[in-house]
Design brief:
Blueprint lengths: L4 H12 L3 H11 L1 H13 L9 H9 L3 H33 L16 H19 L3 H10 L3 H7 L5 H11 L4 H9 L2 H14 L4 H31 L3 H21 L12 H23 L9 H6 L1
């Protein structure tokens, strides 16, 4: 059963209404370690795609100062250490936001006490995905989808074990991998917009191009986080995906009804030309009967059998 992505995205928009500022801050600081790594790479390292030869590229890399490599290494280390627990805390914030509970900016640090467990979860997930990717790309993608809900289970129940969270995700995603994949792919337009904005503005200013691109990506990440939290609530609840499918059907009927005024496909209460034609035909037949009766000079109704016997 594949549930359309607009069901989860519509819930995300409703949940974020009036709470965009806090949600944007949570998403920004949750991805801050990765953002720092990207900034260091863009501003301190040469673009290897711009070199005409391999020798020129090697010479440019050798000219990089040791402190730059140290800064990049520290940023990468912080990213690997902090991203798992920040991601789990971010998931917890957005799940509660979908449940109409506002944790505030402090929600970003709500799961810091399971720092080690979060790190271990992402480590095991990465190992599983990597091993499946050695076979082919498709098995790796399937493994990624299979364990995608594990951080959400750990965020909502910190007492769970790492393997238990992964098993729960495996069960929840058994028949829902395509729905989640389509949900993720529905945001690809935002990535394309961020890429084009960076390309167009890079000629003006590299910093301006990065800021514009990262702002678009931040908006997309916040929207995506809320939509994925909505998906988790449906996938983890008994018959949650069936309810989501029913809601998708209702939304589709509401949307299609907007084109017809809610009165049927022809805008006339569901009636068609055939029904009108049948009504007009009945009136025409009645008129012809009256005309025939007038031509015969008999305006009286036909006599029944009892009238004939009275004579």
């Amino acid at each position: 059963m594949t549930v359309p992505s607009y069901v989860f995205k519509s819930k995300a928009i409703r949940a974020l209404k009036g709470n965009w500022q806090t949600a944007l801050l949570v998403s920004f600081f949750a991805s801050l370690p990765l953002t720092v790594v990207q900034l260091v790479q863009s501003t301190q390292l040469p673009d290897i795609t711009m070199f005409a030869s391999y020798g020129a590229m090697v010479a440019a890399l050798q000219a990089i100062q040791p402190r730059t490599w140290f800064l990049l290494g520290a940023a990468v280390g912080a990213m690997f250490a902090l991203t798992p627990v920040l991601a789990v805390s971010c998931n917890h914030y957005f799940v509660r936001r979908l449940q109409k509970e506002e944790l505030g900016f402090s929600g970003l640090f709500s799961r810091m006490r399971i720092f080690g467990k979060s790190f271990l979860l992402y480590l095991l997930m990465s190992v599983q995905i990597f091993l499946w990717s050695l076979l082919l790309v498709v098995p790796g993608i399937i493994a990624l989808l299979r364990y995608s809900m594990a951080p959400y289970y750990l965020a909502e129940n910190p007492d769970l074990g790492v393997l238990e969270a992964m098993n729960l995700s495996k069960q929840a995603m058994k028949d829902q991998k395509m729905s989640y994949l389509l949900l993720e792919l529905s945001f690809i337009g935002w990535l394309i917009a961020a890429m084009f904005s960076e390309l167009l503005l890079s000629g003006v200013s590299v910093i301006l191009a990065l800021v514009a691109s990262m702002f678009i990506q931040l908006y997309m990440a916040t929207y995506l986080n809320a939509a994925c939290a909505s998906f988790f609530l449906a996938a983890s609840a008994p018959d949650g995906m069936r309810a989501a499918q029913a809601e998708a059907t209702a939304l589709f009927k509401t949307f299609s009804g907007g084109f017809t005024g809610g009165r049927g496909p022809f805008g006339d209460g569901g009636s068609t030309g055939g029904t009108d034609a049948g009504t007009d035909g009945s009136d025409t037949d009645a008129d012809e009967d009256r005309d025939t009766g007038g031509e015969n000079g008999d305006d009286r109704p036909p006599s029944g059998p009892d009238d004939d016997n009275e004579g």
